[in-house]
Design a protein that fits this description.
Blueprint (H helix, E strand, L loop, with lengths): L3 H13 L2 H8 L3 H15 L4 E3 L4 E3 L1 H28 L4 E7 L2 H17 L3 E7 L7 H5 L4 E5 L7 E10 L1 E6 L20 E4 L5 H7 L12 E5 L2 H9 L5 E4 L3 H4 L4 E5 L6 E8 L5 H9 L27
Helix pairs in contact: 1-2, 1-3, 1-4, 2-3
Organism: Streptomyces polychromogenes
Pfam families: HTH_1, LysR_substrate
Family: Belongs to the LysR transcriptional regulatory family.
């Protein structure tokens, strides 16, 4: 049976056809490589290489041995690489949740690159509803999540920001605010504010759906919705107004709604989060991949100069 170092020396020399380059690749002395090949040839009982002072070439027997050994050797290398990746936390399936179609675009691109970079791994993504922003991560449905900030949950780790979005106000077409080229936070006192209801922390709701304007005027509360698409239906029906990420109009624009940009509101920030006790190398590797990707058109990313400050305003 051949030893591993004999196989590596033979296959490397069969590729390089040069003893010095082979010794450099293997980190061995050139004489050690020569001795290994000679010992292997004695065991085989025939020359594997033709050698001259200027030339190294495989013999017919050497070429056949290379062709027989190479597929199995590469299969062993792949198996060891997969096992190493799994041991480091890269193998298997990473489940990533997201809220907002802009985040989904980045996550899909990152998933494709992650699968290529770490063979044997997979990434599954799923939407996280605004009515239960932290339920899936706590129940184990997802391992990693991208959600609108703020985050003040002791059992969850706030990772880096992914996207930073300008805000707009969704207004019924027939409302006076729809004729404006922009709105201010003070204008929230001019119409019922439609909000999301569910298992949502009060600080998160107050951040995205403020109860008072900056001047202290009360913001009238309108109806609540469980899901994002319900908000669109209510706005289009004239039930009130609701803040949102401005670029979401590209994905969810519909008749009956005018999207009016805010002129004085900070952006909505989307950031990674994961369980505080369940951080893995696989999670960190995926998070670190995202800054290498281009953000969706019209969307600002913190790593390319976008704002990283938290804002008071509507989610996606």
């Amino acid at each position: 049976m051949l030893e591993r170092h004999e196989i590596e020396a033979f296959l490397t020399l069969a590729e390089e056809l040069h003893f010095r380059r082979t010794s450099e690749r293997l980190g061995l002395a050139q004489g050690r490589v020569s001795q290994t090949i000679k010992r292997l040839e004695r065991r085989i009982g025939a020359p594997l290489f033709e050698r001259t002072s200027r030339h190294v070439a495989l013999t017919a027997i050497g070429a056949r041995l290379r062709d027989d050994l190479l597929p199995g050797y590469r299969q062993i290398q792949r198996a060891v690489a997969r096992a190493t990746e799994a041991g480091r936390g890269f193998g298997g399936t990473l489940r990533v949740g997201y809220s907002g179609p802009m985040a989904a675009e980045v996550i899909l691109k990152a998933a494709e690159r992650f699968r290529t970079r770490y063979p044997g791994s997979d990434v599954q993504i799923q939407e996280v509803q605004l009515c239960d922003p932290f339920g899936p991560i706590r129940s184990g449905q997802v391992d990693l999540q991208v959600t609108e900030r703020p985050l003040a949950e002791p059992d969850l780790t706030a990772g880096p920001l992914l996207l930073s979005e300008p805000r707009a106000l969704m207004v019924p077409d027939r409302h006076p605010l729809a004729r404006r080229t922009s709105v201010r936070l003070e204008d929230l006192a001019e119409a019922p504010l439609l909000t999301i209801d569910g298992a949502i922390p009060r600080y998160w709701l107050d951040h995205h759906y403020p109860r008072h304007t900056p001047a202290g005027r009360a913001v009238p509360r309108g109806r609540t919705a469980t899901y994002w698409l319900e908000l669109l239906t209510l706005v289009a029906a004239g039930a009130g107004v609701s803040p949102a990420c401005a670029t979401v109009e590209r994905y969810n624009g519909r008749p009956g709604i005018t999207w009016v940009p805010f002129e004085d509101a900070p952006p909505v920030d989307f950031g990674f989060l994961w369980p505080a006790t369940a951080e893995t190398a696989r999670i960190r590797a995926f998070v670190d991949l995202c800054p290498t990707l281009d953000p969706p058109a019209g969307v600002s990313a913190p790593w390319v100069g976008g704002s990283s400050g938290a804002g008071t305003g509507g989610p996606s």
